[in-house]
Amino acid sequence: MRTLVLGIPLPHVTFDNYSFLSAPSLFDYGRAIVETSALSEAIEQVAAGSTEHKTHGGLAIVNGSGGPAAFSLAELLRLRRLEAERLLTRGGVIVCFAYPDVSHEAIRELPGWRRYDWLPARRRLLLRRAPPRGIRQAGR
């Protein structure tokens, strides 16, 4: 089974490494590993227009309405949420390198979008905070 790795290069023969924005469909995989700070960085770059990002199909990602030569950032984020839901519904696993939640206010057509909004709402409850270093959890 292949693993989709987003935002952090992890070398392995069964890993496909992409950015969150340039990756193929999440549901094409059984597992995904996501570096969420890189996800936020890429979104902020597109929202600010500072760096060009492209979809897996080669279309430029824009902060606004898409068209024949561009794909809307807001639409891509909505699509990623549907893909994540489908992957999890099929029994897939998503592992996130978690960071504090942040709001991405500059996304046109999707103001107030938050770092973990691409995860289905009921699945976000699975995120757990790691204990501080040096503190052992009970039973370990």
Defining traits:
140 residues; globular; single chain; 8 strands; 2 helices; two-stranded parallel ribbon; alpha/beta
What does this structure look like?
Helices cover 21% and strands 20% of the residues. With 140 residues, it is α/β, with parallel strands linked by helices. The strands form three sheets. The chain has a four-stranded parallel beta sheet. Strands 4-5 form a two-stranded parallel sheet. A hairpin with an 8-residue loop joins strand 7 and strand 8. The relative contact order is 0.17. The model has no long low-confidence stretch (mean pLDDT 88).
Low-confidence stretches: none
What string gives the helices and strands in order? EEEHEEHEEE
| Overall structural domain count | 1
Structural class: alpha/beta
Cα(first) to Cα(last) distance is 30 Å
Q: How large a portion of the residues is in β-strands, by DSSP E?
A: 15-25%
Question: How are strands sequenced across the largest beta sheet?
Answer: 2-1-3-6
Q: Characterize the biggest β-sheet.
A: 4 strands, parallel
Number of helices: 2
What's the number of extended β-strand segments? Answer: 8
The radius of gyration is 16 Å
What's the mean pLDDT score? 88
Helix residue percentage? 10-25%
Which word captures the global form? globular
